[in-house]
């Protein structure tokens, strides 16, 4: 059952649904600390191994609201995962956030054209990332239509 928060100024009741994030990194040096910060912001996080095929499998089973993954992953890169998600026929497509340690406009363009919702560079501030996830998820829940992914030529 969703939590209800009373807003003091208006007396209005707002129902908050916990955001489910699939984080494609369960390493001790990056994934676990990042997941801990997101959980502190009230985000439900499932951290999995950095493996494109496993990420795609987890998306089909867990139905996350948001997927965060590196551009380059073993066995299948982010573009392959995005194309795979399009083929899953999910009722609600997750927001896809792609990160990279390479500041390369071509990678960013390729990810966005494939259907990524957000592209960002590492390193980043995990608190700011959690706030961005919440903002993007709130925006998506208010959008009546989702933009269709543009196939990469």
The protein's oligomeric status is single chain
Helix content: 25-40%
Order of helices and strands: EEEHEHEHEHEH
* Terminus-to-terminus distance: 44 Å
Supply the helix-strand structural class. Answer: alpha/beta
How big is the Rg?
Answer: 16 Å
- How many strands? 7
Q: In what order do the strands lie side by side in the largest sheet? A: 4-3-5-6-7
Gross geometry: globular
- Averaged pLDDT: 85
Describe the largest sheet: 5 strands, parallel
Uncertain segments: 1-15, 144-153
In short:
The protein contains five helices and seven strands, in the order E-E-E-H-E-H-E-H-E-H-E-H.
Tell me about this structure:
The protein has 153 residues and is an alpha/beta fold. It contains 5 helices and 7 strands; from the N terminus they run E-E-E-H-E-H-E-H-E-H-E-H. Strands 4-3-5-6-7 form a 5-stranded parallel beta sheet, with helices on both faces. The relative contact order is 0.15.
Draw up the topology in text:
Layout: E1 3-6, E2 13-16, E3 20-23, H1 31-40, E4 44-47, H2 52-62, E5 66-70, H3 78-86, E6 95-100, H4 105-114, E7 118-121, H5 126-142
Parallel strand pairs: 3-4, 3-5, 5-6, 6-7
Antiparallel strand pairs: 1-2
Helix pairs in contact: 2-3
């Amino acid at each position: 059952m969703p939590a209800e928060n009373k807003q003091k100024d208006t007396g209005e009741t707002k129902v908050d649904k916990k955001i489910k994030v699939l984080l494609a990194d369960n390493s001790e040096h990056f994934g676990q600390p990042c997941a801990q910060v997101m959980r502190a912001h009230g985000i439900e996080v499932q951290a999995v191994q950095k493996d494109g095929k496993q990420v795609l499998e987890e998306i089909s089973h867990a139905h996350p609201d948001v997927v965060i993954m590196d551009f380059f992953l073993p066995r299948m890169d982010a573009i392959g995962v995005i194309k795979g998600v399009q083929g899953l026929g999910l009722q609600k497509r997750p927001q896809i956030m792609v990160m990279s340690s390479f500041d390369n406009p071509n990678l960013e363009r390729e990810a966005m054209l494939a259907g990524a919702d957000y592209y960002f560079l590492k390193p980043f501030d995990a608190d700011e990332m959690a706030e961005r996830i919440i903002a993007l998820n709130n925006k998506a829940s208010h959008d009546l239509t989702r933009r269709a992914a543009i196939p990469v030529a």
